[in-house]
Amino acid sequence: MDGEYPLAQAFIVLWIMIPAYLANTIAVVTGGRFPIDQGKKLGDGNRILGDGKTWSGLLGGTIGGIIVGYVQLNFGTSFVDNIEPGIAGTNNETFWGDTPFLIFFLLAFGALFGDLTASFFKRRLNLNRGDKYTLLDMYDFIIMSLLLSFILGGGWLQTWIFDGTVPLFTLLIATPILHRGVNIIGYKLGVKNEPW
Ligand code: CTP
Ligand code: MG
Question: Could you count the other beta carbons within 10 Å of the beta carbon of residue 43?
Answer without folding.
Answer: 5
